[in-house]
Amino acid sequence: MSELIEHLQVRxxxxxxxxxxxxxxxxxxxxxxxxxxxxxxxxxxxxxxxFYGQFSEGVxxxxxxxxxxxxxxxxxxxxxxxxxxxxxxxxxxxxxANINRQGIKLLRLTIGKEQNQHIAAEDDLVxxxxxxxxxxxxxxxxxxxxxxxxxxxxxxxxxxxxYKMDYRTDMRNVIRDIEEEFAxxxxxxLKDTYLTFRTSDSDSTDLIWWQIFRDCYQKITTAxxxxxxxxxxRLQTTVRYERAERMPYMPASLENEYEEFKDTPxxxxxxxxxxxxKDTVENRFLKYALWNILDRFKRVYQNITKVVKAxxxxxxxxxxxxxxxxxxLANDRFFRGIGTFKGLSQDSLVMKxxxxxxxx
Length: 360
Known about the structure:
This protein has eight helices and 17 strands. By secondary structure, it is α+β, with helices and mostly antiparallel strands. The strands form four sheets. A seven-stranded antiparallel sheet has the order 6-5-1-2-9-13-12, with no helix packed on it. Strands 4, 8, 10, 11, 14 and 15 form a six-stranded mixed sheet that branches.
């Protein structure tokens, strides 16, 4: 009898993405044995159930099986809700994607945050394989395609389980133990998959923030000084009203008005002056970013000094130097006259391309 192959199909009206797993039944058996799953105990069955969710419209997620000698003849089941896990660590998943209608061009497939290196894309087909290695937790999968010249995506979230241990409880215990000894090592777990722990402004998350910030601190301060010394300005208009006798010249646009009121010396003429202003949305963002960084740094500074020995002069000196530099940057006189940041209403080429701004 041919071996059964499991399939996961994700589709919308434009494209279809199919993952296959020849070792699926083996992985399920290993999962049941290693995680002590008992069929008549519902609480243990949860250990092999996975999360599935969608974050683009019209996505259907279905699961089916076929025999190894007839991979194209698989039968899709109903749309999933709470299903056994499909993705496991250290398991190969051949995949392919194709178009469901004319006028679609497949562009790329991303797993987690980066484009998968083992995926090839052609106009009407995406093919390759995925292996999550030792990474477990939730992951975002996005198939990007072009329709009528506009980029769209088929995107969903699922969960990669371990067939060796119940990661939802065991992994939390592992990370808690790691954090007690080396709080920052937990950050290395956050790769293509991520763990859905509750986030809060705790000492732990502050320490993770500190580890990230310490690595990019020099780049941020260098970019901020570069902007302060050579900021981008934008041409703006200011309006003033003057009597004719105080105007150095009469603009052509006001000649008709002057003929009408030349016998009225008190009449005021509207004048517009152009000037370069530093009060731009990009400079407002820099001001906002520096003050928010400084505010978070103060809290982290306090938490670190609680656990660092008082005689560790080098760490205290480093923190004090960083605190002084951040205060100096945030309070620089350059920011006088720069307003409050209220968000970016549209993409800014300055933020994307200009020196200093793109780094911030």
